[in-house]
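Shipment paperwork, digital attachment
Item: protein structure file
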Amino acid sequence: MHTTWRVRPGRISRFDRYLVRRVSSFPRGSHDAFFRRLSASANNGKLWMGAAAVMALVPGRPRRAALHGLIAQAVASAVTNAVFKTLLPRTRPLPEHLPVFRFVHPQPKSSSMPSGHSASAIAFALGAGLVKPALGAALAPAAVGVAYSRVHTGAHWPSDVIFGSAIGAGAALLTRKWWPVRPPFPDVTRAEADAPALPGGDGLSIVVNTLGGSYKEETAAALHDVFPEAYIRSVEPDESLEEAIQATAKRPGTRALGVWGGDGTVGAAAVAAVEHSLPLLVLPGGTLNHFARDTGTGSLKEAVTAAVKGEAAKADVGIVTVERGLAGDPETAELIMLNTASVGLYPNLVRRREHLQPALGKPLAGVVAMFRTFAVGTPTHLTVDGVRHKVWIAYVGRGRYYPRDHAPLVRPVLDDGVLDIRMITADEHFARLRLLWSVLTGTVATSRITHLREAAEVLIESADSPMALAVDGEALAGVRSVRIRVEPRSLTYYSPLS
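Attachment content:
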């Protein structure tokens, strides 16, 4: 048996009629057309969708504010229309309650209690304001105006508007827990180290990988312009990059090793720098160069400044021991890891995020990339430190990355002595739905499918077939096990400290 709750005449009705009489006594004027148009602009949430579209043009917090505002609006609208309008049927104001020139036509046929326009307006404005208060303050007059317009035009009683506004505020506060404000990232700190000053590049030997994604014919010439005294070795596609780096590091007179290329090239140079006790100058080059960004040499000007002044710092490195081949006859190799290693779908996620980031910004690009990646992906069976898991992502960062969720972006400290271990597992029931819901609501970091920890060492083994491993963007197939440990402060790198 279906039961409905009816709003009975009483104090609320007397309060409503009193306020409507006051509104009806206002003289006729241009404000009547204004509130009628404002009310109509918010039909079906069009006003707030338009505002969100404008806000989304600005990367960063405005875009996040728009997203949270829309999520809050959607929740408020669903609760208002699907729940309360069914439970609380109420007749809307009649034409005799307001002047005919002010009365909305045609009048909505749904229950008057509560006001859906008011719920959506307050939810969007407050939801956006919780992310970026200045935007919330700018949206507040429009939201209050829409709420009032529903009384001014006779679409709702005042108590409908009050109740709807309360629902909207509740939706904004509820979804704020879903889409939490990220805490500020820690300040960048450097462990200062001694390194020779290299005026004009004197004593600097640079290896340039011509296969780097941003390499141009004039790259070597540009480096020679800023380092006229440096030795510059361009490695052609048919040459061995590792052999060229080792030969350059051993070159007589080399006091520092420079490298131009992506993360894989920088990793190979780091091996030689550690082996020959040379400070490493990372130059911004290649398709991706995360280590250059983290060391503060993301531009050529910054790299030149650090080298000329002899400003340097210490960084930890990860020692990656990889076992491949047959179980009875394994092949073992040892690599240096400067940034990250991963198993599972993480490389696909990163590629999609990097592709979408210029258009959508980092946070939204991460959400969209996550949805696209995990909607069709399958988990991998792994054993991590002796515990078997079904894993979407097993990610190991050399040092703490931020934010603490599925899309780490920055690493303020390079010598903290830890591995940042993150797993998103499929061990739980309805794992894919849990994963996509946590991405939508921004609760990946606190979801039961997410496991975050730090350690000095981790062992990952394939539970069934060999796994694909990516180390600093370089893919390795047929891996049966990988052990990663931290080698504290073993790399000296140039970095502008002032």
